[in-house]
Design brief:
Elements (H helix, E strand, L loop, with lengths): L1 H25 L6 H5 L2 H21 L7 H5 L1 H13 L6 H19 L1
Helix pairs in contact: 1-3, 1-5, 5-6
């Protein structure tokens, strides 16, 4: 089951990358609504998100349903770290504490 938990976490990570791509594309002004939503970065983000969804569905075949939301919460950690790296957002004490609580919660859920 550990292998499928890893697949699940990879799908959550891929989804987080998709969110960062969408945020980066939102910063690019477009001449029209069509160009804003049909640019390569947005299309790539949605394709990546679709792949993430397929991986999640595959992983749910083997991962207990009760564990899904717990693993999905790792997205908060991935998005925060990716935002720090690519968007230069700051990680304050409250965010760091929140991420620590999420990690502890995932560990407790997995071990318990």
């Amino acid at each position: 089951m550990v292998k499928y938990i890893a697949v699940f976490l990879v799908s959550v990570f891929i989804s987080s990358v998709s969110q960062i791509l969408l945020k980066k594309s939102a910063d690019i002004p477009g001449d029209s609504i069509w160009k804003e939503y049909m640019n390569p970065r947005v299309l790539t983000a949605y394709a990546v998100f679709f792949c993430s969804s397929l991986l999640t569905v595959f992983a749910y075949k083997y991962v207990p349903l009760s564990m899904g939301p717990v693993l999905e919460s790792s997205a908060y950690i991935f998005v925060t770290v990716l935002s720090y790296v690519f968007l230069h957002e700051k990680i304050g004490k409250r965010k760091a504490l929140g991420m620590a609580c999420i990690i502890i919660g995932i560990a407790v859920s997995y071990c318990g």
